[in-house]
Amino acid sequence: MERLLAGRHSGVAFDLDAAGPRIEQFSGPGYRGCRLTGEIDFMSSGMVQSTLLSMVLPGGGAVVVDLSRITFLDSSGLGVLVQAHRTATERDTRLLVVASEPVRKVLRLTGLDTVLETYDDLPAAEAALSD
After folding, report:
1. Are 9 and 28 in contact (CB under 8 A)?
2. Cα distance between residue 86 and residue 68, in whole Å
3. Could you read off the pLDDT of 47-70 as tens digits, one per residue?
């Protein structure tokens, strides 16, 4: 595991599978977050699901999933997002998704853009939290 400090957010980054996405957990004003870089597919979706579900704690709050650096998302990745959304709803937690253009395209094609709370960038998601 590699520890790092990045700008205004500090967190722990780990690369469990070189072929899978890089995941960095961080926190911001009033939320927990994770930033993923790379591709989310069948091979990496389990790791991503474990990370997201561990962040959605009972009792409310907010989780920001930053997918702005994701270049590919298959149906397994969509399933992970749907499960995270369901779990967040059950636990009274707000789930916000920051989506790259490739991710936004898949969300639009599947209609999930109307289900998930999505934003173009992290500052927009943070601003929505203060509304």
Report:
1. yes
2. 22
3. 999 999 999 988 889 999 999 999
What are the structure tokens assigned to 21, written together? 């996405």
111-128 tens-digit pLDDT = 999 999 999 999 999 999
pTM of this structure: 0.84
The C-alpha atoms of residue 22 and residue 116 are separated, in whole angstroms, by 22
Distance (Å, whole) CA 15 – CA 1? 8
Q: Which of 54, 80, 75, 67 is nearest to 120 (CA)?
A: 67
Q: 4-32: per-residue pLDDT in tens? A: 333 334 454 544 445 678 999 999 988 99
Please tell me the distance from the alpha carbon of residue 99 to that of residue 105, in angstroms, as a whole number: 9
Chain mean position to CA 14: 15
Q: Are 65 and 98 in contact (CB under 8 A)?
A: yes
Domains, the chain, with CATH or none: 2-124 (3.30.750.24)
